[in-house]
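Consortium newsletter contribution from the modelling node. Members have asked for a concrete example of what our holo predictions look like. Here is one, prepared for the L-homoserine complex that several groups have been discussing at recent meetings.
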Amino acid sequence: MSEPLKLGIAGLGTVGAGLISLLDKHGRRLSETIGRPIVIGGVSARSKGKDRGVAVAGLKWFDDPIKLATDPEIDIFVELIGGEDGIAKAAVEAALNAKKHVVTANKALLAKNGVELARLAEKQGVALNFEAAVAGGIPIIKTVREALAGNEIRRIYGILNGTCNYILSRMQDHGLAFADALKEAQDKGYAEADPTFDIGGFDAAHKLALLTAIAFGTKVAFDQIHIEGIQNISKIDIDAAQELGYAIKLLGVAVRTEHGIEQRVHPTLVPEDSAIAEVSGVTNAVAVDADFAGNLLLVGPGAGAKPTASSVASDIIDIAAGFVLPPFGVPSKQLATYKRAKLGEHQGAYYIRLTAHDRPGVMAAITKRMAEREVSLESIVQKSPRTNPGAPATVVIITHDTTEQAIRQALDQIEKDGKVAERPQMIRIEEL
Ligand code: HSE
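And here is the predicted structure:
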């Protein structure tokens, strides 16, 4: 065998430790595959003494990840530190400037700085691979960038956050309230102590921004994403949706429309008999509508030491085999400017839940406002609380396809009319 391939691994959290254990288990076979021994040339993390469940004592230790990134011995810098800038960005830039290949799991870094870093990697003639940044163990970057390169992609969407999917699944399948399901997710270590990043939809949005750029050949446009989290999804919505034949999922959706590109992360009603509705717990799923390959769905673990390490290993093997593509599939200077479609022009069906005053004429007034905006109703169900006559009633409406602008205007008017006791709930339905 020829010269060893030396990895510099910065960040020894869940993914870093997972990578070390993967190399322990499969390193010999992978070395045979690439025809070079794969070795860990150095590691860096915040605390040297911490027990990580894997042996790091024999590895060359670097207190400074930038020193590791630029060490002449290192061939590939593996960035598993995290964070959209700070030391992670500085170390990746240092590695690229030193003409080192980079593998990263850092979605936040790339969602913010992806094009700039891709440009630098291309200029230096090195790889910047990030399979592990999106949907953990699901090889979606490779699938879109390579396997589907011969297709035009119309839409890419999916369940991109395991924590949210766990919470919604527990609410749907076990009747938990949102707060209890969140507490459970935190106890199991899925959600962060500050769960805003997951349940607010930001983690899913980082992943969506990267998928959109690769699928559509556009510049990464994280700040153009419409983001809604799952905080306002109640058990009432889960139950009402279920009664009408739907499940509620937090989806990230990127779709080309006649007005531009829609990128949105929001709770979504999906038909309960669809494959994506069946994806429960922390599992992720990514669907791609491609013109030649057809409609694909990839399902698998979206986080965790082993799945994420599997994706990092895949990136390393590609580099070792000499397979280096521009990070976003096409050279960064050819990435098209992102044209955002206005959300008001979004076309689709909607789930609406109103807490309506239980008085004569209220339903007529609600449907009149819908009709004025040409919103056509597919179904409407009213439930009055039997135990409390006269209290507001829950009215659930499923609309036919309409525009977001029309539905928002109708709901604003209904609120202004004083027919409802609370802000209306509005959830988009995705056609699958
Ligand atoms: N916190 C994420 C999730 C995993 O719950 O899916 C890492 O992106």
